[in-house]
Specification:
Distance between the termini: 26 Å
Mean pLDDT: 94
EC number: 2.4.2.19
Subunit structure: Hexamer formed by 3 homodimers.
Family: Belongs to the NadC/ModD family.
Strand content: 15-25%
GO molecular function: nicotinate-nucleotide diphosphorylase (carboxylating) activity
Number of domains: 2
CATH topology of the largest domain: TIM Barrel
Function: Involved in the catabolism of quinolinic acid (QA).
CATH class of the largest domain: Alpha Beta
Oligomer: single chain
Largest sheet: 6 strands, parallel
Order of helices and strands: HHHEEHEEEHEHEHHEHEHEHEHEE
Helix content: 40-55%
Structural class: alpha/beta
Number of strands: 13
Radius of gyration: 23 Å
Shape: elongated
Number of helices: 12
CATH superfamily of the largest domain: Aldolase class I
Length: 317
């Protein structure tokens, strides 16, 4: 198990910037609390937008809430969820019992927060949405990584991410043991059939990219072995082998002979993942890691303190 950070909000090693996370937390809370109007900077004024909690919970009441796994999986997004809570309850105390990348089982406590009950309840859904989404991606990614373990193939994500959540979702893939090859259109050139048609040939397309962006790696999408050879001879760094069955992938691996890295994609499922990885390709890229991952079921169990709070209750999604 990864050692939980002393400060559960710590972003060190996540690759997520302080500014981006702060903006995400704000957008998420605005969506839930104000419906689009700017969130008041004063936490108590922001919390007051939760009409149910403002009406039923005394302003001074304190409580302790456990973020709990309701299913087995891999955790991701805990530092972001922690920041959701402290945006509304700056003085809250947080204790992490798990860290991003940990495997957890149903019933495990991941994070404990103590602070004003109103604030904890106002932050609840936003924190759960962030952590459940990221943990679901990490959990699915780990299934793929486990499926190809020992083959040498690396599981990659794609650009098929939820708009506005790409940094978090790609971080979640890393938490699950996968990797990010391309964050966007700016860091790797991907030459597809339409680019080839516009440039006139694979060689012309690669040459044009080299001239305009000489420091950017060039990947070429290929559908058949002949295209793979043409792309390698034209100087491609990587080949994206689209919708090729294992027997064709093995042929491409032999033809390319290590002159370029090979990435299998298209039509991949967990059932065929290992057979594809054993062909000798370097990567399996799986759009479903981000566009089709179910959430990991998480919940918030609250224990209120003080008069009229003898009952504890569990929040369900």
């Amino acid at each position: 198990m990864v050692t939980a950070a002393a400060d559960p909000r710590d972003l060190t090693g996540t690759g997520l910037s302080e500014q981006w996370v702060a903006e995400l937390v704000e957008r998420t809370l605005v969506e839930d609390l104000t419906g689009g109007a700017p969130l008041p900077s004063a936490p108590d004024l922001a919390v007051a937008h939760d009409v149910t909690s403002a009406a039923t919970v005394p302003a001074a009441q304190l409580g302790t809430a456990d973020l709990v796994a309701r299913a087995d999986g891999v955790v991701a997004g805990l530092p972001v969820a922690a920041r959701v809570f402290t945006r509304l309850a700056p003085g809250a105390t947080l204790t992490a019992s798990a860290a991003d990348g940990d495997r957890v089982v149903r019933g495990d406590v991941l994070l404990t927060v103590r602070g004003p009950v109103r604030a904890l309840l106002a932050a609840e859904r936003s924190a759960l949405n962030v952590a459940s989404r990221a943990s679901g991606i990490a959990t699915l990614t780990r299934r793929w990584v486990d499926a190809v373990a020992g083959t040498g193939a690396v599981v990659l994500d794609t650009r098929k991410t939820t708009p506005g959540l790409r940094p978090l979702e790609k971080y979640a893939v890393r938490c699950g043991g996968g990797s990010n090859k391309r964050m966007g259109l700016y860091d790797v050139a991907m030459v597809k059939d339409n680019h080839v048609a516009a440039a006139g040939s694979v060689a012309a397309a690669i040459a044009a990219v080299r001239e305009r962006a000489p420091r950017v790696a060039v990947q070429v999408e290929v559908d058949v072995p002949g295209q793979a050879v043409e792309a390698v001879e034209a100087g491609a760094d990587f080949l994206l082998c689209d919708n090729m069955p294992p027997e064709v992938l093995r042929e491409v691996v032999a033809l390319v002979g290590g002159r370029a890295e090979l990435e299998a994609t298209g039509g991949l499922t967990l059932e065929v993942a290992r057979a594809v990885a054993e062909t000798g390709v370097d990567y399996l890229s799986v759009g479903g890691l981000t566009h089709s991952a179910p959430i990991l079921d998480l919940a918030l169990d609250l224990r209120a303190e003080g008069a009229g709070s003898a009952l504890s209750w569990s929040s369900r999604p």
